[in-house]
Design a protein that fits this description.
Layout: H1 37-54, H2 75-89, E1 116-118, E2 127-129, H3 130-167, E3 177-179, E4 196-198, H4 199-218, H5 221-229, H6 251-254, H7 265-289, E5 298-305, E6 308-315, E7 326-333, E8 336-343, E9 348-353, E10 375-376, E11 379-383, E12 388-389, E13 394-396, E14 401-412, E15 428-433, E16 440-446, E17 454-466, E18 471-478, E19 491-498
Antiparallel strand pairs: 1-2, 3-4, 5-6, 7-8, 9-11, 9-19, 10-18, 12-13, 13-18, 14-17, 14-19, 15-16, 15-18
Helix pairs in contact: 1-3
Length: 500
């Protein structure tokens, strides 16, 4: 076999791990087709080493033979020694191996071929003659020696190839390049048209700077296909612009290039333009050929300038009915009736007054809640729906709708530190709540943390849906360390405004 390291041209050197064994699988050494050459050499070398160890005479203990001189040095000498010992034990003369004489003593043959042994399983098993058994062993040994010789030759050949692969220079690869016909990329500097660029640079910049943005804008091929197939103007639909000349003509007849079921982007775009032009032409024809006919008690006066026709329509009878919150005032002069439509104001209410005295209350979980405070009764400023009871201070919703509600409280404590008491902290709480339940609608509080003469509390709720019969009232709770005395200029008020 010619070593590859003598001349490897024109082949390119390659590592042994990249070359595979294409011969048959050899199960006894676990060698499979497809293994790398490195694995093949390793397995063959391992089996060879095992055979060499097994046939090494020095690994066997021959002390029982008392071989003081000339012990066997090779494996075939060892086998011959064993044969001689067996013959001696059986009183067999070596020259008798070719004879078939009768026995010299009852029950025991003097002929070697008549001596029977049980063969080892690896040699077929069963009972065989001594001579046959020895011949089988010898043949097996010869086969092993032949195989070892063949394996050694193959190992030497593979070793030459592996050495050639390992010592070969590292191959070099030249990246292809080509001249661009257009600019590539959006990041400066772009790959300019006419320049020669390596293909890996072109591919990287095209994908990252051209294709990815393109895909983000246009979507996937599935997205484009779905958009194309979503055409709403079929080829059998009527062509609008042709209805004045040839009524009933279809799109694919009026426009032969119109595709009834487009599958490509260019077909879809072409259809869009045809449909758009059809609509535009229809509008132009409509502007030129519009007809407005007068009816009973209706007069029509057309005035046409270029493609624009203005129609003045007059009637003697017209009915405009006012709706909820809307007022209509008609004025008729001759054939013309003028209607004045105005939004009628929705109901609202405002109550306001100087607060009466508000005694302080000791704080408690169940005694100083806003619902425990009395209802304060401001005076009516206006009440469009007469929904406020000036005796009880309760406003009752007159109609289901949406309302804006708000309140404002201004209380003065002119003496000492005003509302502030560092030793006995407290707060003022005010809010609008239901008079029938403990439901709060708008609530706020004032907590004096420094010297403060005035306490101002405001709150509101916008666009809340009240049901006819719901109630509102104003409550104020004082848990500070000061009683409040009514003071001119102070105020308590709340308002309700219906917005829908």
């Amino acid at each position: 076999m010619r070593p590859l390291n003598l001349d490897n041209s024109p082949c390119t050197p390659i590592a042994s791990n990249c070359v595979i064994w294409t011969g048959p699988s050899i199960s006894c050494i676990k060698l499979c087709t497809g293994d790398t050459v490195s694995d093949v050499v390793f397995k063959l070398a391992t089996e060879l080493c095992t055979l060499l160890d097994q046939t090494n005479v020095t690994t066997y203990d021959l002390a029982c033979f008392n071989l003081a001189a000339c012990p066997p040095t090779t494996f075939d000498q060892l086998i011959q020694l064993l044969i001689d010992k067996i013959c001696a034990l059986e009183n067999i003369t070596p020259t008798a191996t070719t004879t078939t004489t009768s026995t010299t003593s009852p029950g025991k043959s003097t002929v070697v071929s008549d001596y029977l042994l049980t063969a080892a399983p690896c040699l077929g098993g069963g009972t065989v003659g001594l001579v046959d058994y020895v011949n089988m062993i010898a043949a097996k040994i010869c086969d092993l020696i032949t195989q070892i010789t063949i394996i050694n030759a193959e190992i030497n050949a593979l070793d030459i190839r592996v050495t050639a692969l390992e010592t070969a220079p590292t191959p070099t690869f030249i990246i292809p390049s080509f001249t661009l016909q257009c600019d590539i990329g959006t990041i400066i500097p772009v790959l300019a048209a006419g320049s020669t660029q390596d293909i890996d640079i072109v591919l990287q910049r095209f994908i990252n700077e051209e294709w990815c943005p393109y895909k983000t804008v246009f979507g996937t091929s599935t997205d484009l296909s779905n958009a194309i197939s979503s055409q709403c103007v079929a080829g059998t639909d009527l062509a609008l612009a042709a209805q004045y000349i040839t009524p009933g003509v279809q799109m694919n007849v009026e426009y032969p290039t119109y595709v009834g079921t487009p599958t490509t982007l260019n077909e879809a775009v072409s259809n869009i333009w045809l449909a758009l032009c059809d609509v535009r032409n229809r509008v132009e024809n409509y502007e030129k050929e519009s007809i407005v006919a007068a009816g009973d008690n209706i007069t029509v006066t057309p005035v046409t300038v270029a493609n624009v026709t203005t129609y003045t329509v007059a009637g003697k009878e017209a009915i405009v009915v006012a709706g909820a919150g809307i007022s209509v005032t008609p004025v008729t002069v001759g054939n013309d009736t003028t209607y004045t439509v105005a939004a009628a104001p929705l109901g609202g209410m405002l109550v306001s007054a100087t607060p009466p005295g508000i005694p302080k209350v000791a704080p408690g979980l169940n005694t100083s809640r806003l619902s425990d405070a009395p209802i304060f009764i401001p005076t009516v400023v206006y009440d469009d729906d007469t929904a406020y009871n000036g005796a009880t201070g309760i406003w009752t919703c007159p109609a289901t709708g949406r309302y804006n509600i708000s309140f404002r409280i201004h209380l003065t404590q002119p003496a000492g530190d005003g509302w502030y008491d560092p030793l006995v902290p407290g707060i003022l709480v005010a809010g609008l709540m239901s008079s029938a339940t403990s439901e709060y609608y708008a609530i706020n509080s004032f907590t004096p943390t420094v010297i403060q003469k005035h306490a101002d509390i405001c709150g509101s709720l916008v666009g809340y849906s009240f049901t006819a019969g719901d109630t509102l009232c104003l409550r104020i709770m004082n848990t500070t360390n000061y009683n409040y005395l009514s003071t001119v200029g102070d105020v308590m008020e709340f308002s309700v405004e219906r917005i829908k």
